[in-house]
Amino acid sequence: MQTVTGLYDNYSDAKAAVNALEDAGISSSDISIIGRDGEEHDSNAGEGAGAGAGVGAVVGGTGGLLAGLGMLAIPGVGPVVAAGWLAATAAGAVAGAAAGGAAGGIIGSLITSGVDEDDAHVYAEGVRRGSTLVSARVEDEHVDAARAILSDDSAVDVKARRAVYREEGWERFDENAPEYTDDDVLKERDRLRQTRDLMP
Fold first, then answer.
1. Chain centre distance of CA 5
2. Which of 4, 57, 81, 145 is 20 to 30 A removed from 17 (C-alpha atoms)?
3. Count of domains in the chain?
4. Is 5 helix (H, G, I), strand (E, B) or coil?
5. Residue 52 carries which DSSP code?
6. Helix 143-150 crosses helix 11-23 at what angle (to 10 degrees)?
7. Distance set, CA 3 to CA 26, 135, 144, 165, 166 (Å)
8. Rounded to two decimals, what is the model's pTM?
9. 94-123 per-position pLDDT tens digit
10. Structural domain containing residue 63
């Protein structure tokens, strides 16, 4: 199995990617989605994301992965809506670990699954700043299809995003960094949109 991952600045694009992965024959149990909570999320998870709250039904769920969305609090990120194997890893880390365990769980799980460590830190930082992560564990015969889905025009260019972050002095995801507020997320999206608009 290989892990293929994409980062999206718009939750609706991430949701479309999950649906496309499922339509391509990838099992819901092998797909994960983790993103900041907000009005744009059509989560059925309810309110109040305590550490590990609402994650019992995260994996599986009828009607595909998105039907199983739950709430989770990740140190350094804040409340997220999440479902799938990666979310279950984070939930386990939060339930039984000290602060920072969930972030370490997400990053560690991605690295263990074959994701480049530098990319894993960009993915975690992206979620912290309001983006949504979609990750799929796929058999060899589905790798090309998954890569095509998760690297389409709506996905973030991870190398370019890393460069933007590093221009600000960022090096790695830090679970002790202040959580982004909803206003911070909106400002970040506007800033990134302007950055993209200025690119040749």
1. 9
2. 57
3. 1
4. strand
5. T
6. 160
7. 12, 7, 11, 24, 25
8. 0.80
9. 444 444 444 556 787 788 888 999 999 999
10. 2-198
Burial 124-155 (b: 16+ CB within 10 A, else e): bbbbbbbbbbbbbbbeeebeebbbebbbeeeb
The model's pLDDT over 157-197, given as tens digits with 9 standing for 90+, comes to 999 999 999 999 999 998 888 888 889 988 998 888 877 65
Q: Which residue has the higher pLDDT, 2 or 95?
A: 2
Q: Which amino acid is at 171?
A: E
Instruction: Answer for the pair 115, 104: CB distance below 8 angstroms, yes or no.
Output: no
- Integer Cα distance of 25 and 3 in angstroms: 15
Which pairs from 60-67 meet CB under 8 Å and 24+ separation?
60/28, 60/29, 61/28, 64/18, 64/19, 64/22, 64/28, 65/18, 65/22, 65/28, 65/31, 65/32, 65/33, 66/15, 66/18, 66/19, 66/33
